[in-house]
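Researcher: Going back to the complex we discussed earlier. I've cleaned up the inputs and rechecked each line, so this should be the final set. Can you rerun the prediction on the complete assembly and write out the structure?
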Amino acid sequence: MPFDPEQYKHLFREKKKNPKRGLKRPTRAGARDPIVIGADVGGSTIRAALIDNDGSLLDRLDVPTPRDDGNALVRELARVCGMLIEKHPRVTVRAVGVGVAAWVTNPEGIAIQAPNIGMRNFPLRKRLKQLLRTPVVILNDVDAACRGECAVGAGAGNANVFCVFVGTGVGSGMTIAGQPYRGATGVGGELGHVKMIASGGELCGCGDRGCLETLAGGRAIERLILESNQERPDSILAKKTAASGAASAAALQAALEEECPEAARIAAGVSGVLGLAIANALALLEPDVLVLGGGVIQNCPALFRLTCGAIRHHAAPSLKGRMRIDKAMLWDHAGFMGAGFAALRLIHAEQPRPAPPAGKQSAPAKPVPIAGEE
Ligand SMILES: [Zn+2]
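Model: Rerun complete. Updated structure for the full complex:
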């Protein structure tokens, strides 16, 4: 059945106009106003969740990401928001936050470049707001994940947090003095596109050459494994690649566990360049904690250990021996949680709350219990 986004328009805000709604006993979710939707648009999956004012996850849905263009993405986002609200008919969604793999201007929410989804200079926030008729905030996906980790994950309770995610590419984000920081127009904080080669190097997704992610992201690791396997088809790494069906971080981990010299060479190179770039960023920022996450870090614990070693090796003298490095905690929940927190910030910015009495601090956010995880 073709999806008609018009059918979901009434689900936002207009419930408040219905006096009968107010007379009904509120559900557990309805009792905690405001409620927001946080969505994380990945290359293959949109993860969307209902999140309440305390940062608790009320429900979530995963749907495939349409990769045709921005309009298809907007329609799908509206559909998934409608599906969540249909499941919780007494909830009023006050804002929607979306993290998307794109350079996004702030606050306009224009996706300047998103090659995986086919968007270029696409007014994502404006189009989504037109459909949903509710406040919308658009973020870069890694920025959203960092906000999630900073608020309720590995960075929780710290004022200065630097997050680096090594997935298909390399992304980063930061909280400075308790505030998310993304530069003057929203496209800063891109450690993945820091130049590690002065001239030449592999072509990056950004159109330039020699970026960190061409040397240390998941795509770079895949290329390095395939090159190695071509040279040494009888290596342990080549066998692990064939067994796992992909030249992935998991295959690299399996080969490292069997002391494969080819895998060790790749891991040393990747962790070395990653450690150098991160150590330089730490010298600039001096965060309370560095959070390392992303699929590559998740699937290759050896690479996490080696990268920590390289960061400490390259650390500025002022930071030697006193850097805190933590692994990301929220895994694939970080993006939609962070996008949800950005939506909550939007509401609170519109309606500032009275300051707490002098000397009384609000309790720090607690990690969110996540359904289906240990
Ligand atoms: Zn680049």
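Model: Worth noting: The chain has twelve helices and 13 strands.
Researcher: Good, that matches what I expected from the previous run.
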